[in-house]
Amino acid sequence: MIDLHTHTLLSDGELLPTELARRAQEKGYKVIGITDHVDSSNIDFVVPRIIMACSDINKNWKIKAIAGVEITHMPLELIKSTVKFVRSKGIKLVLMHGETIVEPVIKGTNKESILSGINILTHPGLITLEDAKLAAEKNVYLEITARKGHSLSNGHVVKVARLAGAKLVLNTDSHMPENLITKDFAQEVLLGAGVDKKEILQIFKNSEELVAGLT
Fold first, then answer.
1. Which of 148, 157, 183, 209 could form a disulfide with 1 if both were Cys (CB 3.0 to 4.6 A apart)?
2. DSSP per residue over 78-146, as a string?
3. ∠ CA(23), CA(24), CA(25), 5° rounding?
């Protein structure tokens, strides 16, 4: 199981990064992305601590932890500079909080994020075909999510990604221990989103491909 979107108590999650990784390893995870929410208010605090925790995990345990962030509810004008800033500080995995239908995300966030060089656009809601084609062009992965609420638009994301030729990944957006899932349950989430069995294999390969490019 590869899960590239999780949160710890460094933002709004419940667990320390090491505890999250340990619980994920026991669940069968091979790779976990620790991607706490950031904006201008906490970025200096969160980034070095995620990097430090992931370094400790990778030196001592079998599970691979990738240091990341999820830039969240950011003014459009600041997205590009924020992506550049976190990468300059050693963050390899950059997620952007997409236009989920259950939060008032600024319209245009999906497009601006894709143009800013992120890796994954999380829960992109009712993403347009134009933006999905842009994601395909820029090699930005679109997320299918196991997270309650955000998952309501999974079917739409799958449909538009197919039409656009955009790559999909499956993540949990975990905030607490019970949000972590097994690979079998991940397959059920994908089937529920309208993904066929052949596409499921490709989505898992997409996560492997993304990890290989980051490490």
1. 183
2. HHHHHHHHHHHTT--EEEEE---TTS-PPTTHHHHHHHTT-SEEES--S--HHHHHHHHHHTPEEEEE-
3. 90
Residue 29 contacts residue 63 (beta carbons within 8 Å): yes
Ordered domains of the chain (ranges, CATH): 2-214 (3.20.20.140)
CA angle 94, 100, 102 (to 5 degrees): 135
Residue 214, CB-side half-sphere exposure with 13 Å CA sphere: 24
Q: What are phi and psi of 84, to 5 degrees?
A: -60, -40
Considering the entire predicted model, what is its pTM? Answer: 0.98
pLDDT tops 90 at residue 205: yes
User: DSSP 3-state assignment of 6?
Assistant: strand
Rounded distance, CA 204 to CA 207, Å?
A: 5
Please state the separation of Cα 45 from the chain's center in Å. Answer: 20
